[in-house]
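Researcher: Quick one. two chains, 256 residues in total.
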Amino acid sequence: MKNFSIAIREVGSIHVLDISGELDAHTASQLENSLKELITMGKTQIIVNCNRLEYIASAGLGVFMAYIEDVRSLGGDIKLSNMTERVYNVFDLLGFPTLYDILDDESEAITDFQSK
Amino acid sequence: MSNKTTKYSISVEASTAYLAEVRNFVAHHALAHGIPEKDISEIRLAVDEAYTNIIKHAFKNKPKKPVNIEIGFEDGLIWITITDEGESFDPSTYSEPDLLKRIKNKQRGGMGVYLIRKLMDQVQYKRIGDINEIKMVKLL
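Model:
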């Protein structure tokens, strides 16, 4: 039984991943597969909406670390949005806010991509 | 000194399949003891990271042997010990991860030990015979 799920939406050329539940060493491979698939298809404008993400461990953060360089070198980005305070704190403890675009709302991430 | 300790334990295989169960085990008892929500979420994450490290490093992702998790409540503190019979692990080789460097090298992981130290007040690793023990303390 998995306590984590992903739904993918398209907003123009942008792909939004709605992730929900608990992202840990057991469920991280699901996120990894989704990201890998998008990147393989050349879809590199990616937003991960964390609105329904209840929990994240470092294995989940590791997925973002593994693919950000690839995506950026292809001219895209992985932007994160709508985090709860508790989830944001984990990103913050590991220094993510200086290296990743973490936005309060998905609409800001969309605007960022569209203004490029 | 610890004349008012209440403790609970659980034993699970070394597998990520049990991560949620282990997190819920510590959260459930902490909640029942009236521990503040912020402390509970920090303990859940620290236990997750410690158990994940055991699965990956002590057992190299091969589930077989049990991992024992014990949580104890005393006046003003909570302690958690996790024991396993896998390969021992030397935390002294770990320092604060350089995130930028790791991203450039596409490295991941290695952040668990750092997180545990940030989340808990005391962390101690021991090898007793064939048993590895990590003891984490959170002051309340």
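Residues 10 and 72 of chain B are 12 Å apart (CA to CA).
Researcher: Thanks, that's what I needed.
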